[in-house]
Amino acid sequence: VVREVMDRDFNYLTYKTSLPLKVLKTVLYQTLLGLRDLHSANLCHGALCPSHILTKGTEAKLVDATFGQI
């Protein structure tokens, strides 16, 4: 499996940095869009937590999923 290198996880961003509100909203919005796409494919993310949301700037990606069929 090859993955793109991401800077940080969401856990780090929320506890170790002062995150501007605009960046927080963008990352959370992208996370919700990713979940919507998973659910529309009848999949669910089995272990969603801040450390499974990787970020690079204002880009967010869901990782380390234990995907289950709905």
Describe this structure in words.
- By secondary structure, the protein is α+β, with helices and mostly antiparallel strands.
- The protein has helices spanning 10-16, 21-40; strands spanning 8-9, 43-45, 53-56, 59-62, 67-69.
- It has a three-stranded antiparallel beta sheet with strand order 1-3-4. Strands 2-5 form a two-stranded antiparallel sheet.
- The longest helix has 20 residues, at 21-40.
- The chain is globular and about 35 Å long.
- The relative contact order is 0.26.
Order of strands across the biggest sheet? Answer: 1-3-4
How much helical structure, as a percent, in the residues? 25-40%
Strand portion: 15-25%
Question: What value does the Rg take, in angstroms?
Answer: 12 Å
Largest sheet: 3 strands, antiparallel
Order of helices and strands: EHHEEEE
Low-confidence stretches: none
The DSSP helix count reads 2
- What's the rounded overall pLDDT mean? 78
State the end-to-end distance.
24 Å
